[in-house]
Amino acid sequence: MPNAPLVDVSGLTKTFGADTPQALTVLDDLSMQVAPGEIVAVMGESGSGKSTLLHILGGLDRPTRGTVRIGERDVFAMDDETLSTFRNQTIGFVFQFHHLLPEFSALENVTMPARIQGQSQHKANDRAQALLDLLELADRAGQSPSTLSGGEKQRVAIARALMNEPELVLLDEPTGNLDARTAAPIHDEIETLRRETGQTFVLVTHTPALAAVADRVLRLEHGQLHPISLDEHAA
């Protein structure tokens, strides 16, 4: 790659129930690199380990073996407290279910990562409003999640993931809970966000329409990643 990778994974192995007869290895000596500003999609069958891979990339789970480097940092060389701070500052997460806090407005939900980081309310509110504007939700800032559509809730979740200007954004089936019509604008917005923010995205999806926004598509099978075209996936 022309640039040093933002994400550099080497020898990644994850075994559940190690040292038991029921041991299950879902990631097996896996390696991958993601360049700064790249969108990479990971596809594969249910249970193949896609979400496990994403959780390890984000430091939410630890591997059995192997290393994950994000920028200059070895993710699993950090202690839990340092890793928590690094995750808050460097990585944004979007999950299939938005996990918005129902007692707070859309704007307040978006500000949460910044408030955890210790930013002032005024600065956090300004940043959150700018993100909601970018995602065409300016008029929904004061609304509670219960009044938002499914697509709007997921766009609020994307804004929240971008709040601290993370270098890396991880998306786990971000439109998997939405119908095709509702999901389509979010697919477009991911491309727009990469273009306007320069951030790096790794997304897990079953949906070819979402994978189509990626620069590369990888298939996770038997614990390994393989480059594919969407035509191959359809076949």
Automatic annotation (TrEMBL):
Occurrences of domain ABC transporter (ranges): 7-235
SUPFAM superfamilies: P-loop containing nucleoside triphosphate hydrolases
Similarity annotation: Belongs to the ABC transporter superfamily. Macrolide exporter (TC 3.A.1.122) family.
Gene3D superfamilies given in the database record: P-loop containing nucleotide triphosphate hydrolases
Keywords: ATP-binding, Lipoprotein, Nucleotide-binding, Transport
Pfam family, one: ABC_tran
Designated name of the protein: Lipoprotein-releasing system ATP-binding protein LolD
GO molecular function: ATP binding; ATP hydrolysis activity; transmembrane transporter activity
Gene Ontology annotations for the cellular component aspect, listed alphabetically: membrane protein complex; plasma membrane
